[in-house]
């Protein structure tokens, strides 16, 4: 009764009540914190999806992005809150600026995990993400002297209240040399008009941020203090690599303990664990959950062979890459030091495999005593999936072919997806409103309905699409000027490549294009319209060549900007500290989506889907999910180039690729590479770094940029020409938006559930 009275007196959402004073008297920070508490209560009131069987999605990364507006949208409170604040002369957008972005992931793998939790919540599936509460997560990137600098991103340490709630659970994890205790933090993951999922993050009680002294460097031997300070501590030395193994075991042991305790609580006798839990192993970082679960089951009186079968029925593994460097393989001596209790279990699993299969490729422990985590995952789980059709096919036919012969029924594909709540409704509200007006709002729950847009294609609709794109470009221009002082021209073509920096993603190919375009302008060959090439990328701190690419991009940006003729036609911009928040500003403003990985190397990509949904056209190789995009939109609505994955795989197998011959035979390649060491570039940058990059390209070029160079230039030129025919271009954009429905993570999650998890949706 008293509550009802307060409610009526308080007409509106209750912001003032949460703030303890009228909205007008609050600082922005007070309002932000009031909203955060209000949202947390509203999410709690919805409750979490329940069911006998629960998904545990275990992952080293959850790149969740800012939560305030996303939660307001999912809880159906956004409009009300915005209006109420506006009525008091305040702006929700300004409050959103105050929120710091949790840096709990580094790229697609972590963002995928976040999209999946959103979709699980929305589809009513009982699901938890399990990971680590990194204090500083991934580093913050800044540019100094045209180079990347890394500083700790202390996203938790300022006045903003936390989305994390401390749970009452405390566990102990025993390492070989000492024990630690852990605390669990929960974040509610709201679904779109549904109950919640949960993100459950473990921290070690002994963590000590004072260990961080100089930038992101710290004494990696102080394991108990340093364990959860950073995501992916520098692994260029053994100390760093061992610290990663400590982190992984800490995550897995906590997860395994939690899962068994919860399932017993729900009524499991552990022998029937598979009726209560589905564990999805997100790439190999959580692989130690397999021996850890077996260990705990045996400890509880279950025989080894039975425990192994139980764990196999519970666990499923997702492979996200074929890159050899990412396939984790730990020396047994590391495991012996970190978690000696699981070593005999791994040895026994290895012996089992050895008994039934002699093929060296599939053994868990190799002849050098290295433990191959992916091999353990495939033998000891009931499902192995790739993340796009082409990727799964390459796993089945090439990379994991011997496993496929052993377990044909375990292999399956789950093409990645993205949540349309964050990647359209929240980040491109004008486009979402246009879609609502045109086909109704059913697409918000059933994304395939977007196809109906095609029935409404006319000049008016295409005109509105163009106008929305233009306003998004203006908004991006305002944002980037405030963010880093860069001025960009919304009239120009926005040509965007944003993703982690890696040689296989081939930012260097785009860089060579930009140099070629610059040299062309100098020689009097002017483009049809100004092009703004926008990069967003962080390089791993120990990845030298990746940092060289960033350096060359920043130097080129300076050289072009200083040229009074060229700067009218070309601009190179690199976004500082590219993250989810920057992506939300950038993607709705893009005209061209660069997806130019070396065919066969990008398992899926998910940025490609976000750009497509926001009406950018793809310029890409036939790699990862690009292949599926091409199939959906048709050849006329995508720009593809380059060697096929079969050709690339054959080239690697022949081992006869010689970049130097391309450099010598192709004038444009030679001119672009030579320009890296030109007077202007050397004046802008560091000769060592530029020289190392030029040398790498000429002598190694492991990801084969040169064979695709001419085709890339030609296709990009064709695309820039097409961009000048506004009506035809917008009609292609419309097809892309209309066909994006397939890439909703709701579809992906429904498939995981149908084929792998078999959870019952919470009906009410
Ligand atoms: C990415 C893949 O590169 C990308 O193609 C895919 O869309 C995404 O995962 C989601 O499936 C990966 N990120 C990582 C990060 C680490 C190790 C392996 C991969 S694969 C640290």
UniProtKB/TrEMBL annotation:
Coiled coil: none
Transferase in keyword set: yes
Keyword Lipid biosynthesis assigned: no
The name this protein goes by in its record: Alpha-1,4 glucan phosphorylase
Species this protein is from: Parafannyhessea umbonata
The organism's taxonomic lineage, starting at the top: Bacteria, Bacillati, Actinomycetota, Coriobacteriia, Coriobacteriales
Function (record text): Phosphorylase is an important allosteric enzyme in carbohydrate metabolism. Enzymes from different sources differ in their regulatory mechanisms and in their natural substrates. However, all known phosphorylases share catalytic and structural properties.
Family annotation (NCBIfam families): P_ylase
Record's catalysed reaction(s): [(1->4)-alpha-D-glucosyl](n) + phosphate = [(1->4)-alpha-D-glucosyl](n-1) + alpha-D-glucose 1-phosphate
The protein's Enzyme Commission number: 2.4.1.1
Annotated family: Belongs to the glycogen phosphorylase family.
Required cofactor(s): pyridoxal 5'-phosphate
Keywords: Carbohydrate metabolism, Glycosyltransferase, Pyridoxal phosphate, Transferase
Class of enzymatic activity (EC top level): transferase
């Amino acid at each position: 009764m008293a509550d009802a009275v307060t409610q009526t007196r308080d007409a509106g959402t209750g912001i003032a009540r949460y703030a303890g004073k009228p909205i007008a008297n609050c600082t922005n920070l007070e309002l932000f914190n009031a909203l955060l508490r209000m949202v947390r209560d509203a999410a709690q009131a919805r409750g979490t999806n329940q069911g006998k069987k629960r998904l545990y999605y275990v992952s080293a990364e959850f790149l969740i992005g800012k939560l305030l507006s996303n939660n307001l949208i999912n809880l159906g409170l956004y409009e009300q809150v915005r209006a109420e604040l506006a009525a008091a002369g305040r702006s929700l957008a300004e409050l959103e600026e105050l929120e710091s972005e949790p840096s709990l992931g580094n790229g697609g793998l972590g963002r995928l995990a976040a999209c999946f939790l959103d979709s699980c919540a929305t589809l009513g599936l009982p699901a938890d993400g399990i990971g680590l509460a990194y204090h500083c997560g991934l580093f913050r990137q800044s540019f100094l002297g045209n180079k990347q600098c890394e500083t700790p991103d202390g996203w938790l340490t300022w006045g903003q209240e936390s989305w994390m709630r401390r749970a009452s659970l405390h566990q102990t994890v025993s390492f070989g040399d000492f024990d630690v205790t852990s605390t669990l933090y929960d974040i509610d993951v709201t679904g779109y008009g549904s109950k919640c999922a949960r993100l459950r993050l473990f921290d070690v009680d002994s963590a000590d941020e004072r260990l961080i002294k100089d930038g992101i460097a710290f004494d990696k031997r102080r394991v108990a203090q340093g364990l959860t300070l950073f995501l992916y501590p520098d692994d260029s030395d053994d100390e760093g690599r061992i610290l990663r193994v400590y982190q992984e075991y800490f995550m897995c042991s906590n997860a395994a303990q939690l899962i068994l305790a919860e399932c017993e609580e729900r009524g499991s006798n552990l022998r029937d664990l598979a009726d209560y839990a589905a564990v999805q192993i997100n790439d190999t970082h959580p692989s130690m959950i397999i021996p850890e679960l077996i260990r705990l089951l045996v400890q509880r009186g279950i025989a080894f062979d039975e425990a192994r079968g139980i764990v196999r029925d519970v666990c499923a593994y997702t492979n996200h890459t074929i890159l050899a460097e990412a396939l984790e393989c730990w020396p047994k001596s590391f495991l012996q030091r970190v978690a000696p209790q699981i070593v005999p279990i791994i040895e026994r699993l290895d012996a089992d495999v050895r008994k039934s299969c002699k093929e060296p490729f599939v053994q868990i422990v190799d002849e050098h005593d290295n433990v191959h985590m992916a091999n353990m995952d495939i033998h000891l789980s009931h499902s192995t999936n790739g993340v796009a059709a082409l990727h799964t096919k390459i796993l089945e036919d090439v990379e994991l072919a011997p496993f496929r012969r052993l377990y044909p029924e375990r292999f399956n594909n789950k093409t990645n997806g993205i949540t349309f709540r964050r990647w359209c409704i929240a980040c491109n509200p004008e486009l979402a409103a246009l879609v609502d007006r045109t086909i109704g709002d059913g697409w918000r729950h059933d994304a395939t309905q977007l196809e109906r847009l095609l029935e409404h294609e006319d000049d008016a609709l295409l005109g509105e699409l163009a106008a929305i794109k233009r306003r998004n470009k203006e908004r991006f221009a305002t944002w980037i000027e405030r963010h880093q002082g860069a001025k960009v021209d919304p009239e120009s073509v926005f040509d965007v490549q944003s993703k982690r920096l890696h040689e296989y993603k081939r930012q260097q190919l785009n860089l060579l294009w930009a140099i070629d375009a610059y040299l062309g302008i100098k020689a009097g060959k002017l483009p049809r319209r100004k092009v703004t090439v926008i990069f967003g990328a962080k390089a791993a701190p120990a990845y030298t060549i990746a940092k060289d690419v960033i350096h060359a991009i920043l130097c080129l940006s300076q050289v072009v900007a200083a040229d009074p003729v060229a700067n009218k036609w070309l601009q190179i911009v690199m976004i500082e500290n590219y993250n989810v928040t920057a992506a939300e500003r950038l993607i709705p403003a893009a005209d061209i989506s660069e997806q130019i990985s070396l065919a066969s190397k990008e398992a899926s990509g998910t940025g490609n889907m976000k750009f497509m949904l926001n009406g950018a056209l793809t310029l890409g190789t036939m790699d990862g999910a690009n292949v599926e995009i091409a199939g959906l939109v048709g050849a006329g609505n995508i720009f593809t180039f380059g060697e096929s994955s079969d050709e690339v795989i054959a080239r690697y197998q022949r081992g006869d690729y010689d970049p130097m011959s391309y450099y010598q035979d192709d004038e444009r390649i030679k001119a672009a590479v030579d320009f890296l060491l030109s007077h202007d570039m050397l004046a802008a940058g560091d000769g060592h770094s530029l020289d190392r990059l030029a040398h790498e390209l000429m002598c190694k070029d492991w990801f084969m940029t040169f064979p695709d160079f001419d085709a890339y230039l030609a296709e990009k030129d064709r695309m820039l020409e097409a961009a000048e025919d506004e009506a035809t271009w917008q009609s292609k954009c419309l097809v892309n938006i209309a066909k994006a429905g397939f890439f909703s993570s709701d579809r992906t999650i429904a498939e995981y559930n149908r084929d792998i998890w078999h959870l019952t949706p919470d009906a009410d």
